[in-house]
Records
---
Amino acid sequence: MSFITSLTRMWLTRTVQPFTFKNEYDQILPFAECENLGLYVHIPFCKSICNFCPYCKVRYSKELCDRYIDSLIREIHLVGNQHPGKKRVTSLYFGGGTPALAVDRIGEIIEALNEHFIITEGIGLELHPDNVTEEVLAVLRAAGVTKISIGIQSFRNKYQSILGRKTVDTNKMKKALDAVKFETVSMDFIFALPEQTYDDLKSDIDEAFFLGANHVAIYPFIDFTFTASPIKTMPKKEKRELLDSITRYCMSKGYSRSSIWTFFSEPEANYSSMTRDNFLGFGCSATTLLRDQFKINTFDIESYCDRINSGTLATSLTIRFTKRQRMIYWLFWTAYSTKVNVKDFERFFGVPLKQMYCFELWIAKLLGFVTEENGTYAMTLKGAFYYHYYENFYTLSYIDKMWGIMRKEAFPDRIEL
Ligand SMILES: C[S@@+](CC[C@H](N)C(=O)[O-])C[C@H]1O[C@@H](n2cnc3c(N)ncnc32)[C@H](O)[C@@H]1O
Ligand code: SF4
C-alpha cells in the first residue's frame, strides 16, 4: 500500500525525497502575505469516545476544557499579534472533538479572533446530534456561527449500533433546526459500513434534507490502524457501486456536488475546512498550511497548554515544502472539490499547470478521469472514485502513520512519509 503512495509521490514531486516533518518550527508565522487564508480551531473534548474515530480528543472534563480554552485564547493572541492591524481571512471552522461542549466559550474565542482577523466568509462549527437543541443553537447563532455540521453517521439504528452510537432523536432535531436558522446546515454520514445498501443511504439523504439540511457529507468508512473499531471495510467493487449510485441519486434530485463527498441543495450552502489555499490552525492537533510550510500542533493537551502558557507555539512538527511538493499538496486538495481551474494554479504558483503536469493531465484525460472545458479540469464519476481510492491509500499510508505516532509522542523528533 505505502509502495503505491511512495511511487506516486516520487513521480509527481520528481524526487525520491520523502515528505520530511521535523521537530523544529517558526515562532513567527509568515501568514501576512497569504491570500485566501482560512482559520481553524480544534476543541478536543467528547462526552463519550467512539471507537472508530481517529481525531485528537479526550473525555470531557469542565476543568480541563476551561484550562485548554484559556491556552487556546493565548495562542490566538500569540499568533494574531504577529501581524499589525487586522488580516482579512475567508472562513473560520471549529472542529473536534465536540466543540459545543464549550458552547459558553465559543463567543469568547470568536471575539479573540476578531481582534486580529476580519472573517469574510462565515463561521462553521461541528455538532454532535446531542448538541442540536434550541438553547445551544441560539447561543452559537448569537456568537456569530453561520454554518453547522451535524455528525449523524446514519439514521438507521442498525448502523448506529455497529458504530456504537445512539439513535438520533429526529423530532427534537427538526424542532431545533426550525427554530434557529443557519446559512448552512450540513449533515455527516458514514457509508460503506457492513451490509449497508443504496436504499439505506438514499433514505438517510432524504431524511437529512427533510429535517432541514441544505448540505450533506457522505464519507467512506476508514479503518484506522490505531482505533479499536471491529468494523470490516467494504470490498472495492461494492464501495464503488455505492458511491456511484449515491452520486447519481443526488444529481437526480437536483443537488450539486461541491466535493468528492459533499452535495448541496442551495447555492449558499457550503462547509469545507480542507479546500482552502492556506489556513492557520489553533489548538492541539490543529494544522497550519502556509505558502512554503505545513505544521502540526502537538496532540497532547497538557504539553499544548504548557508550551502556550510559556509564550511559545505548540508546534510539534513542520514540513518545509519543495516547490513540487507544494504543487502536489495544492492539487490534491483542490481536486477534492472535483474541479481544478488552470488560472487558480497559475495565480498561486506563477507557472502554467500544463507546463508542470502536461503528461499527467493528458493521461488523466485519456483514462477518462477528467474532462477539460474552458480552462477547468472536472472529475468524472470514474475519476472521483479513483481519487477516493487514492485518498484512502494516502490516509492509511500518511495520516494514519503520522497520527498514530503523534497520539503517543507529544514532540516526535522526525517523521518521514
Ligand atoms: C469530529 S466528528 C463530528 C462531530 C461530532 N464529534 C460527532 O461525532 O457527531 C467528524 C466526522 O468525521 C467522520 N468520521 C469519524 N471517524 C471516521 C472514520 N473512521 N471513517 C470515516 N469517517 C469518520 C464522522 O462522519 C464524523 O461525523
Ligand atoms: S466521532 Fe465525534 S463524538 Fe465520536 S469520538 Fe470522534 S469526535 Fe468524539
Note: The longest helix spans residues 381-406.
---
Amino acid sequence: MRALVFEKRGIDFLEVRDFPSSPVRDDEVRLRVKLASINPVDLMAIESLPVSPLPHIPGSEFYGVVEEVGEKVTHVSVGDRVAVYTRLFDGTCSSCMRGDQTYCVNGKRVGVESQGGYAEEIVIPGRNVMKSDLSEEVLSSLPIAVLTPYHALRTVGVGVDDTVVVLGASGNTGIFAVQLAKRMGARVIAVTSREWVKEYADEVVDYPTAEEEVKRLTDGGMASVVVNSLGEKYWDLGLKLVGNHGKIVTYGGLTGGKVSLDVNKLYAKHASIVGTNRGNMAELLELLKLAKDLKVKVHRYYTLDEAREAFREFKHGNRDGRIFIRI
Ligand SMILES: [Zn+2]
C-alpha cells in the first residue's frame, strides 16, 4: 500500500512511499482509508511529539470502508463505511471499564504511538470502528475535531440555561463546538473575525470588541461557559468573558500553554477552569446520531501525494476551514 511516511522530523521529510500491509488478526479490521483531515496533533506528531514506530505514518483523524474482517469481529462487514475511534484501548483496564477509554492504561493514539491514517489502508481493532452513513467530511472530523469539543461541553454540563462563548469559533474544533453547543440547547456567541460563522452561531463578535459585545448581548451576565482552546494569547479574554459561577473549559493551547492568571479575578467570579482531553467511545456513539447535519467548512482537499503541501498550508497558510487529504 501507499502511505505518507517520515523518519526525520519536519514537513520537508514527509514522503509517500510503498509500505508493507499488516496482517489482520481475529479481533481486527482492515480499512480502505477514504478521507483524512489535518489536526494540530498531526503536525505535532511530524515535528515534535515522540512517535512510534519509525518509519512513522501520521494521521489521527480519518474514516474508511471495511475491506477485511477478523474472525471475531461481528458488528461490521466488508463494504461498510465506518467511523473510527482513533485511540487504541484494551477494553479491560479499570479506566476502560469505567468507559474512560481516553485514559486506558495500555492506550495509544493512532497516528502518534501507532501507525496512522494517511495511508491507503490501516489495520485497527474492530472495537474502534462503527458503521455510519454520515457525510465523508463529518466522518473524518469525528475522532478529534468533533469529539473533543463534544466531550468538553458534556463535561461542563452545557444545557438550555447556558450562554456558551466559543473563542476561535472558525477553527478546527471551534466550528463544531458552536454547532454542538447549539444542539445541546445553549445560546452560542462565537468569537471570530470570520463572517461565515454567522451561519452557525446565534451571535458572532470579533476579538477587539468581544468583551463589550458579550456584555451587551448578555445584559451584563456574561458567559456561563467559555470554550478556550487557544491558550496563552486569549486566556485573559476568556477570563473577562466568563460570568459569575461560570466555567472556562480548555482542551488545547494553540498559542502556547503558559498562562498567567489573576487569581483575584478567578475567585471574585467564583469561576472554574476545567481541562478536558478528547472523548470516550460512548460519546462517539452519541455523535453518530447527533452529528447528522453538522456542517463542515472546507478550506481545501489535497491528495496523498500533495500531503506535504497540505501541511505547509496548515502551518503557514491563511486557512479558512478544514484541510482534508483524499486518499
Ligand atoms: Zn484500558
Note: DSSP finds ten helices and 17 strands in the chain.
